[in-house]
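Q: Structure tokens for this one, please.
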Amino acid sequence: MSDSSPPGTTFLLFAYGSLKRGQRHHHELAAGRFLVEARTAPRFALRLLEGYPLLVPGKSAVQGELFELPLTSLGSLDEFEGEAYERREIELEGGRSAIAYLARDVSSGAPYAGRDWRGPG
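A: Here is the predicted structure, written as tokens:
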């Protein structure tokens, strides 16, 4: 986490879809800062629903981006993600953990063969 932030005031978010840099909803992370490209531990997969990815349990390492955000932004992110997603702590490659929004209904949408979603921007 940031050296300038008091302990416990920020969290790490793993973004794998429209919140990534250059994507349609990246502005939702305006309060945060990009840290590094990252991958999940090999326990996930992507599905597509109405053009957007869903993170679900699986056997792949999904590519995404890691952001540091203030804890005060959790409420607005929960509202943005809506009822279709649940906020969970996940393990990243290398043992680090982060918050991610996973699909509540793991059978929603269609399987996505890739591990790195690159939407329309």
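A few notes: The radius of gyration is 14 Å. Helices lie at 74-81.
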